[in-house]
Amino acid sequence: MGKGQRARELRAQDRIDNPKKYSQKKKNNNKSKKSWLAPLVFVVAVLLVAVIFISSYIEDNGFILRGKTAIKTDNFEVNGTMMQFAAMQSYQNFLTNYGTLIQYFGIDTSKKLSAQQYYDEDKTWLDNFMESAQSYVEEALVYAEAAKAEGIDLEEEDFTQIDNYIESLKNSAWQNGYSEKQFLSMLYGKGVKMGDIRDFYEITTLADKYKAKINEETRDAVTDEEIEDYYFENIDAHSIADVLFYSETIKIDKTLSDEEKEAKKAELLANIENIAAATNEEEFKSALEAYLTAKAEAAESADIEKAVTEGLNNASATVAKSGISLKEAAEWVFEVADKIYVRNAGEIKLFVDDASKAEKADEEAEDTSSDTAKEENYTVAVYYMVSAPRRDDAATKNVGHILLSFDAYGSDAAAKAKAEEVLDMYKAGEMTKESFEALAKEYTADTSVFYDNVASGEMVDEFDAWLFAPKRKVGDVEIVKTEDYGYHIMYFVGEGAPLWQAECLDGVTAEKTGDIFEGFEEKYPVTVDKATIKAIDC
Question: How far apart are CA 291 and CA 315, in angstroms?
Fold first, then answer.
């Protein structure tokens, strides 16, 4: 037996004779392992917590996005957090305009926009608002470059306006019991800070300022001849006509025989042909009244008189071409030859829209029909010209306002009190348009003070009601509250241009400024970093 073998046997026997000796040795070994393993586990845990904390801190403060450029030109750039603000501001504006209807758009305000599909398209609601924001930012950067090239910069009143907006956000946060960081995160997502908002508005305010200058100069240079030319090039969009009309559609079961279908059509056609035989307004109304009465009696209407009255009221209308749903009728009413409308007062015509014939023509052309409905529409309409088509000369108004918004002052009461204070300032001064404008530049939350050629129905109801109130006279000043925005100190400037002229002036101006902007786009190219925009998640 070798020495090695004898040594191993002795150690084995020693383990049998002295078990405690070797048991203690093992315990000592385990203690040794634990002595370095426990600190390692602790260090790893601390590192994990630190990583999570740092990641959360970085996200909450927008460090990564702020360090990346989303869109830029030679002298201006919008970083990731500024772009996030732009997209979420677009969303906030959407909520302001459609807040009561938001459920119908399928948006869940408690969830991230990036997690909600935009209708059936292959994009999210965040993508939708981001596209809108990107278009606006690109345009703003181009105008900012053009402004810089012309030596135009922000002035004290511009910075004051930006300061007021920033203060309004801070006040809103305080009024609603949030910290500044919480409030901005709630509105615009994590990471957006007041500095981002200020930087964003310094660029866009400069852009808007120069854009307004270009628009004003271009508008002032538009000639009467250009307005006339634009009107005739777009005549249908700026004309109206007074008509008496009646249209009725019946649904015919496709399973009926051809004879049964034709019988139903013939019955409706005969009734409307009787109305179409009228030679003047009185005959038209009388024939229509007789038909509506017979129809209501046959249907055993609960209130025949009401049904007939409503039908007669609906038959009388002032319409634009776009307001006539039956295409053939619209073309007839507003037919033009050599820049002159063909129709004259007293003309009348019957129109038949037979869906079954249209379907048959399609089937003959394609040998197939995509229509799977069990019914087909048959429409008969009659139009009587009360007046020949004419230019839409509806009245417009020129108005100024100073908006003291709920958001800016945090509450209804605070906004109202400020409006009253500013109105007192106006009354204590010269009470002129110029003094009104000076106060507006300091206090208004709107980007514009004066609006020219405002048509009825163009503004919110309360604004519109004040502006178009009877006996409104130049220089009238009053506070008006609108539910969505706040308190407006209104200033009536005077009458505007006829609606057709105002619309054509806008059209010519838009075409010319569009050409100017295209020139700017070529001169000041924009670079977009799609990866930075894609990284925005809110």
Answer: 13
Q: What is the pLDDT of residues 288-333, one digit of tens each?
A: 999 999 999 999 989 999 999 999 999 999 999 999 999 999 999 9
CATH of domain 395-497: 3.10.50.40
The encoded tokens of residue 499 equal 């609606």
- Going by C-alpha positions, the residue among 313, 299, 344 that lies closest to residue 246 is 313
In angstroms, the CA 140 to CA 449 distance is: 20
CB atoms under 10 Å from CB of 242, counted, come to 16
Order of all β-strands in the sheet with 527-528: 77-79, 69-72, 527-528
Q: What CA–CA distances, in Å, run from 448 to 158, 257, 301, 400, 421? A: 12, 64, 52, 9, 21
Q: pLDDT tens digits, residue range 66-78?
A: 999 999 999 999 9
Which H or E run contains 227?
A: helix 224-233
The CA-atom distances, in angstroms, between 501 and each of 117, 222, 504 are 42, 12, 5
Q: Among 41-45, 146-150, 166-170, whose mean pLDDT is lowest?
A: 41-45
* 3-state SS assignment for residue 323: helix
State how far the alpha carbon of 439 is from the alpha carbons of 213, 216, 415, 422, 462, in Å: 21, 21, 16, 8, 22
**pTM of the full structure:** 0.74
The tokens for 443 are 């206090």
Q: Residue 217: how many CB atoms within 10 A of its CB?
A: 13
- Look at residue 182 and give its three-state secondary structure: helix
Round to whole Å and give the CA distance between 249 and 379. 4
Task: Please check whether residue 252 is in contact with residue 265, taking contact to mean a CB–CB distance below 8 angstroms.
Answer: yes
Sign for the CA dihedral angle at 404, 408, 411, 414 comes to: negative
Q: Would you say 193 and 62 are in contact if contact means Cβ atoms under 8 Å apart?
A: yes
The residue type found at 532 is T
pLDDT attached to residue 326: 95
3-class state of residue 498 by DSSP? coil
Q: In residues, how long is the chain? A: 538
One-letter amino acid identity for 439? L
Residue 162 to residue 252: CA distance in whole angstroms: 63
| Mode of pairing for the β-strands spanning 486-495 and 396-405 | antiparallel
First to last CA, the chain: 80
Q: What does pLDDT average to over the chain? A: 88
pLDDT in tens, 391-415: 999 999 999 999 999 878 878 999 9
User: What pLDDT score was predicted for residue 368?
Assistant: 46
How far apart are the C-alpha atoms of 357 and 345, rounded to whole Å? 32
26 CB contacts (<8 Å, ≥6 apart)? none
Helix ranges restricted to H, 99-179? 125-149, 156-175
